[in-house]
Amino acid sequence: MGEEKKAQPAGGVWPTIKPFVNGGASGMLATCVIQPIDMIKVRIQLGQGSAAQVTKNMLKEEGFGAFYKGLSAGLLRQATYTTARLGSFKILTNKAIEANDGKPLPLYQKALCGLTAGAIGASVGSPADLALIRMQADATLPAAQRRNYTNAFHALFRISADEGVLALWKGAGPTVVRAMALNMGMLASYDQSVEFFKDSLGFGEGATVLGASSVSGFFAAACSLPFDYVKTQIQKMQPDAEGKYPYTGSLDCAMKTLKAGGPLKFYTGFPVYCVRIAPHVMMTWIFLNQIQKYQKAIGL
């Protein structure tokens, strides 16, 4: 009995924080691999040409290190955003399964859990996301307009000092909406695909994780790119000589984009975005699966 009482506090703390620790770790590992593709995606959205042109120009003019510009912000973003969203999703789905008498959740409930987890994660990770976008876009600006942030923490400090603390959540509206769309596609489709590949098709663990993560990556990209496009435009905009910004907000940006380029304008850079989002989602799930297997092997 004494041993049981000793084990309870540790057992009570670790299961609570475990989904958050695992989510953040898997997201950060995936980001280290995907950062160069993410950099190219942002440059395409900023109108610097095709993937091949952007890659060639970056190598020629800025060197290989340019592909990892903003890595510190990317890692900080995963440490906040992915930690919060994957941890929240796990807790929300566990609670929902309990309420459902232990039965698998229907797709719409998984989607609702994904939407909620995305909103929570984006609210927490928005400052790091803003720093990442600005650091990635900095080299595309005229020299006089460059902010020259040295790392993510310098960016956060400068934004707070120059523009006020609330500026850290500039573009948070579209960031949250984009995260909700991405996580609805990513999280709900992954859980649903795992059930399909494992139970209906009888796939093994490795094939199930690979197949489900591929489906998850595609739906995450397809659901989120229009919101990502608007978010990027809002976060990187600069005032003109009269101090006027090109857009008054997300809706204004969306309407002007729709009027100027039609619906497909929101899918500018979709192949590269899909190539960036899908592997990141896939690797996040694969890393997460491996972390959980390792923890199980050592009794955590």
TrEMBL record:
Organism: Cephalotus follicularis
Protein's name according to its UniProt entry: Mito_carr domain-containing protein
PANTHER family: MITOCHONDRIAL DICARBOXYLATE CARRIER-RELATED
Subcellular compartments: Mitochondrion inner membrane
GO cellular component, one term: mitochondrial inner membrane
Pfam families according to UniProt: Mito_carr
Solcar repeat coordinates: 14-95, 105-196, 204-294
Topology class, membrane: Multi-pass membrane protein
InterPro entries the UniProt entry points to: MCP_dom_sf, MCP_transmembrane, Mito_Metabolite_Transporter
